[in-house]
Amino acid sequence: MIADEYHKSLLQVTLDELAALSADVFREEQPCRLDLVTPETAIPLLIVRRARANRLLILNNGAMDLGRSNGAPTFQRSSWWKDLASHQIYICDPGTIGKNAISINWFQSQPPLWSTAYVAKAIRQISKHLGVTNARNRTYFGSSAGGFAALLQLCADKNAHCIVNNAQFDWTRWFPNEVRTILNLHFNGRTAADVRNSWPYRTNALEFLARTPKPLYIDYHVNMASSYDRDVQLPILERFLAVHPEICGLVCIHRYYSEREGHNPMSISKTINILNSQT
């Protein structure tokens, strides 16, 4: 869904201005567009306040089809908003918009800049405006690159829940052309191995989670028919579980098999059922 549909309600705010907003800005059943302005960039958000909801879903984009989006802010799955029982925040990676947009960015930027902290603070502030003050009532979601983003956001909200589908836990293990684009754009052309060694928490979301160890509540849905997810990313999580059993007792791996879907996300109906099961 393209942001043009919400231009009438577009707000541009800093974190301080976001905190000062009246909760009435987010009206029930009226999706509201907001750009979070940071020193680095503007991060497009779409907020949906549902009537009678007491939980919040935070949904992250995966890879963008730039042929369709033309570099405009896009919020994947936002056409489902009426089917989801929770309040919702949809997040668009700023690296996928504008004249220099790339299709997949994993929320990366030139160190030391990193928009992840701003996003995490904005989520919790909007959550307060929506009346969801208990972290246990927040669920982060994403598939593929969106799964990586969801795990980054969980790092700042450790008592919350995260659902990921065929996620990249380590984006440097994705396809070389896309990885090389990020290395050239944000890391001065350094090798993937060098970046993994120098910034492990920027490349591996699980390493970021382990920096401030607290029990993790993560559900990982992985398609065993996808050789990439089965052979590359799943072992990364399995190794993490073996090394950090003290924080992984509530991490669940849900294996399924669909040759038709491959690395693509689960079906709409299955995903909606999973997300609504949190309410």
How are the SSEs ordered, and which strands pair?
Blueprint: E1 11-13, H1 15-20, E2 32-37, E3 42-48, E4 56-60, H2 66-69, E5 87-91, H3 116-129, E6 138-143, H4 145-154, E7 161-165, H5 176-186, H6 192-198, H7 200-203, H8 205-209, E8 217-223, H9 227-243, E9 250-256, H10 268-276
Parallel strand pairs: 1-2, 4-5, 4-6, 6-7, 7-8, 8-9
Antiparallel strand pairs: 2-3, 3-5
Helix pairs in contact: 3-4
Uncertain spans: 1-8
* H-E order: EHEEEHEHEHEHHHHEHEH
- Outline the biggest β-sheet: 9 strands, mixed
User: Could you report the average pLDDT, rounded to the nearest whole number?
Assistant: 94
Q: Which radius of gyration do the C-alpha atoms yield?
A: 18 Å
- SSE-based structural type: alpha/beta
Distance between the termini: 24 Å
Q: Could you tell me the number of beta strands? A: 9
Report on the structure:
Strand 4, helix 2 and strand 5 (87-91) form a beta-alpha-beta unit. The longest helix is centred in the last third of the chain and has 17 residues, at 227-243. Helix 3 packs across helix 4 (145-154). This protein has a nine-stranded mixed sheet with strand order 1-2-3-5-4-6-7-8-9. The two termini are 24 Å apart. With 279 residues, it is an alpha/beta fold. It has helices at 15-20, 66-69, 116-129, 145-154, 176-186, 192-198, 200-203, 205-209, 227-243, 268-276; strands spanning 11-13, 32-37, 42-48, 56-60, 87-91, 138-143, 161-165, 217-223, 250-256. The protein has ten helices and nine strands.
